[in-house]
Amino acid sequence: MCDPDEALVLQSQSGDPAAFAELIQKHQRMIHSLTYRMTGSLADAEDLAQETFINAYRQLGSYRGAAKFSTWLYRIAINACLTWRRRETLRRQMAAKWAETNHPPQAAGGSQESSHGWSERMQEALLKLPAKQRAAVMLTLYDGLNHAEAAEVLSCSETTISWRVFAARRKLKRWLTAGGERE
Amino acid sequence: MKDFDLESKVKALRVPEREEDYWQTFPDRVMKELRRAPERPARRVFMPGLMWCARLALACAMLGFCLWQSRMPATLSHALRKDEQELRQSVERIHDNLGRLMQDEHGLDKLVEDQP
Predict the structure, then answer these.
(1) Is the Cβ pair B13, A119 closer than 8 Å?
(2) What is the dihedral of CA B64, B68, B69, B70, to 10 degrees?
């Protein structure tokens, strides 16, 4: 396999910071897109992209070129996003519990649902998906990875990827259709 | 909704654009962060030889434990057999003494005499 990043990776591994900065320059947009689609927030996406490159630099010694550098980077980014997701879920649960205890819910004063366009609805629906299903959708639909490549990034089998994409599609269709009927 | 419609909608979802300046400075920000908490790229500190030694030591320890466990019942049964033998001998001695007691008209004296 010919990896276009091979030379820069070797230079970075031998301690050349300029080479690593070049790698960041090359892959930053791809990683930002992935982290934004996984979080739905520009600020969190930036933090996670930064975390991804810092982790990549620290783990560079263990990279042996078995997969393409971009695939390896994807894997680090996805793991960072999944960890963020777990932390975020926990934080939200705790906040909800605290709010419930300290400020009991009042009668709903009108629906929060505004006249969202399909783009917002789609973003909301994507964020509602379980993190692993969302990751499978991001990698296969947005980034155009085939199921084998996505399986490599997510460290699972191709069948699992197919199943996650199938389940995600089914849910998205259901939510978007139901949302469309409501409006 | 068809798969194709869904896919085109998903793909049409755009990531908000950032200023060009952001992309220019992002690598520097990461490098600055790395310099602040310096940790060199992990050199290959991982030693497969050490891992194999650890695995071998663990296997030996497990084998030793298994052997010790398998010897335990043998030791126990040996002790039990010894106890059983002693018990049998005691019963036999009682039986002999009882026989003598029944034959001896001064059996009780005899029995008392037989006491060590």
Answers:
(1) yes
(2) 100
Q: Is A69 on the interface with B (CB under 8 A)?
A: no
Q: By the CB < 8 Å criterion, does A142 face chain B?
A: yes
For every residue of B50-89, DSSP letters joined together read: HHHHHHHHHHHHHHHHHHHHHHHHHHHHHHHHHHHHHHHH
Which of A28, A118, A119 is closest, CB to CB, to B27? A28
CATH number of A116-183: 1.10.10.10
Give the fold, CATH level 3, of A1-104: Rna Polymerase Sigma Factor; Chain: A (1.10.1740)
Domain-by-domain residue ranges, chain A? 1-104, 116-183
ipTM of the modeled complex: 0.72
Question: Which member of B10, B41, B46 has the closest CB to residue A57?
Answer: B41
Contact B40 A123 (CB under 8 A): no
Q: How many contiguous H segments (helices) and E segments (strands) does chain B have?
A: 4, 0
Rounded CA-CA distance A150/A147 in Å is: 5
Q: Give contacts of B6 with chain A, Cβ < 8 Å.
A: 169, 172-173, 176
For the entire predicted model, the pTM comes to 0.61
> With an 8 Å Cβ cutoff, are B16 and A36 in contact?
yes
C-alpha gyration radius of chain B = 43
Mutate to test the interface with B, among A41, A57, A121 (most CBs of B within 10 A): A57
Angle at which helices A42-59 and B20-36 cross, to 10°: 50
Give the tokens for residue A4: 């276009």
pLDDT string in tens for chain A (183-residue length): 577 888 999 999 988 889 999 999 999 999 999 899 888 888 999 999 999 999 999 999 888 888 889 989 999 999 999 888 888 877 777 777 777 776 655 544 444 444 457 777 888 888 888 888 888 888 888 878 888 888 888 888 999 999 999 999 899 888 888 755 444
